[in-house]
Amino acid sequence: MGREVPNPRPRRAVKWSRSTDPSPKYVPLANLRKLRECQQVAAVCYRVRNDFVEFLLVRTRGGRWIFPKGNAEPGLTHAQAAALEAFEEAGVHGRMEEACFSRYSRRTEPSERASQKTVTVNAHLCEVLRLESPQESGRTPTWFPAEKTKRLLREDRSPEYGNDLARIINRALARIELSRNDRSASEKSRIERSKNETHLTADALKNVQFIDAIRKSGGSVGKLRDALP
Fold it and tell me: What is the pLDDT of residues 110-167, one digit of tens each?
């Protein structure tokens, strides 16, 4: 029969407190929720057609045009959260840049449950490879040229907020142009390396043929001329 062994260190009872005093090691859950609500991510989705950049916008619940965006998600990087929003709201499959290329702020509308607050939105650039039907209804994802995109983002918004959104497009265009130049330079470098490798292969082949011709000629100049290709 088993013997009961007393615990040499009796466990102290853990007391839960509703005290509002913040712990030096832990952040209250209510504060984490508030922090999450003040951080959002946006997917600035684009494609290039005939050397012209187009941007993908979706409808808000109020009918205005905006980038696919939403709250930062726990357990996801901002880029992953932005990719999730792009997929859910616009059906986007593409390449999302990990680093945020720009930020903007917006003020939320006050309600009975919450007061007005400022939300920081981290914008991530996404090159769209293909689209499918979005999971969220009523979003109407639509492609627009850059200038029309800026005009639509300014509609029914304060001049300050509209201009902030238009600046995001300008920064995106600059980022896209830089990326395309880098790709072009990389492609030129690859083609140049390929040409050099072709020249080296051709020169090596000539050397092999010359050595082979010497062997066949047996040292005779006349036979060497005949043996050369």
Answer: 666 666 788 999 999 999 999 999 999 999 999 999 999 999 999 999 999 999 999 9
Separation CA 96–CA 80 (nearest Å):
8
| Cβ neighbours for 84, distance < 8 A, ≥ 6 positions apart | 70, 73, 76
Taking residue 36's Cβ as centre, other Cβ atoms within 10 Å add up to 13
Pull the structure tokens for residue 145.
């040229």
Angle value at C-alpha 79, between 163 and 154, nearest 5 degrees: 15
Instruction: Judge if pTM exceeds 0.85.
Output: no
Q: Is 30 in contact with 114 (CB distance < 8 Å)?
A: no
Give SS3 for 26.
coil
Q: Domains of the chain by range and CATH? A: 31-179 (3.90.79.10)
CA–centroid distance for 211 within its chain: 56
